[in-house]
Amino acid sequence: MTTAVYPGSFDPCTNGHLDIIKRASKMFDKLIVAVLDNPEKKTPLFSVEERVEILKNITKDMDNIEIMSFSGLLVDFMKKQNSKVIVRGLRAVTDFEYEFQLALTNQKIGAGIETIFLSTTAEFMFLSSSTVKEVAKYGGDLSGMVTEEVAEKLKNRFSK
Ligand code: PNS
């Protein structure tokens, strides 16, 4: 059985993330979506528990997906989950340098770990959690960018 891990901050999960989740889940027996719980990273808008809950709701009808959180090194988490495949999405050339550095570092420190990249679906090319948060902050229309549940959560968060 091949288990792949799709790691990220998912703060919050966008339709671009969801697209990668759906496509990657068809390629592996099991896909673990791993939410980074890193207190040192700049304070997220949603707590790790909230981000996990959002992802669990979004993927509740998909049966080979597990949502987990992790802290520390991704390669250590992968070892515990018995997985050697990292999935990452690529939107544009601008993503490449960072993703390549991450992939090579994980290759160096995680014996036998491979990273595979899925290109974005064109309609999500512009999308990121940061842009979604910015649109939400100023009350912009989020349709097509996130699920209704996420849009609602963003609206509530910024109305406080
Ligand atoms: O969605 P993001 O924020 O681009 O995801 C980045 C993530 C979570 C994949 C990356 O920061 C990560 O794996 N962090 C855990 C620490 C680690 O293993 N870093 C890689 C070696 S420096």
Mean pLDDT: 96
The number of helical runs is 6
Placed side by side, the strands forming the largest sheet appear as: 3-2-1-4-5
The span between the termini is 45 Å
Associated small molecules: 4'-phosphopantetheine
Order of secondary-structure elements: EHEHEHEHEHH
Helix-strand category: alpha/beta
Q: Regions with pLDDT < 50 over 5+ consecutive residues? A: none
The biggest sheet, with number of strands, parallel, antiparallel or mixed sense and barrel status, is: 5 strands, parallel
Shape: globular
Number of strands: 5
What's the CATH C level? Alpha Beta
User: Strand content of the residues, in percent?
Assistant: 15-25%
What is the CATH topology descriptor?
A: Rossmann fold
In CATH, the architecture is: 3-Layer(aba) Sandwich
Estimated radius of gyration: 15 Å
Descriptive report:
This protein is an alpha/beta fold and 160 residues long. The chain has one domain: HUPs (Rossmann fold), CATH 3.40.50. The chain contains 6 helices and 5 strands; from the N terminus they run βαβαβαβαβαα. The chain has a 5-stranded parallel β-sheet with strand order 3-2-1-4-5, with helices on both faces. β2, α2 (48-58) and β3 form a beta-alpha-beta unit. The longest helix has 17 residues, at 93-109. The model has no long low-confidence stretch (mean pLDDT 96). The structure holds 4'-phosphopantetheine. 4'-phosphopantetheine (PNS) binds next to β1 and α4. 4'-phosphopantetheine binds at residues 7-9, 36, 73-74, 102, 105-106.
